[in-house]
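Entry type: protein chain
Record version: 2
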Amino acid sequence: MPLNKLNESVIDKIDSLAQNNEGNSILKFNVYDPENNMQIQMFSRTVKVDLSDSFLKFFEEEMDIGYRIN
């Protein structure tokens, strides 16, 4: 996720999606700043998600953010 797309609204939407799609998959993020060539990896210790179509659709269509399923 590019740093310039990360804001309070996006965090609230991801939080809501995660709470409405509880499951067994760990939620991880790579946030990067291309201007400064920096990145940070983060993951949720308490929230696990179900990779439902609606959950993945948010990242594909609304955010245009790439994702990977391991």
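Comment: The first helix runs from residue 8 to 20.
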